[in-house]
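dude i think i finally got it to work??
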Amino acid sequence: MTRTRLATALVLIGVAFILYIGLGYVLTPNSMAPGFGLPAWPQGESAAFMTLKGVRDISSGVVLLALLLTRQRFALGVAMLATAVTPVGDMLTVLNNHGSVTTALSVHGLTAALVAATGVLLIRERSAATASRNAVATVPAAAVPQ
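look at this
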């Protein structure tokens, strides 16, 4: 599998995952919240914050999918790196609020690492393409007619 295909597959998996999570928080927030890793989650009127999380996740997925579909791979790589900030923030929030360390690291930390790695793969595609375009075939001086 080429790096390009690997990066594309990782983006599609990531987009599917974040859209699934986002839809879950919009449609059934109380069933999704325990998996986030916090020791407690909003109840009653404040439960709307979980819907906001869902909308944020859906928005992130749609932006990444739009960049992929329009073949803006370098911009997609930059967006993936920027998007990696979200799971890092989620991880730190869980840890700072005495939530599940296991969930913080295995869910949010791993997600951040995979999203960032995918971003790097996408950004490096441009470097590799530029390098191959700039490669100049050299002809030995003896082969050049005088």
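The mean pLDDT is 91.
im so relieved honestly
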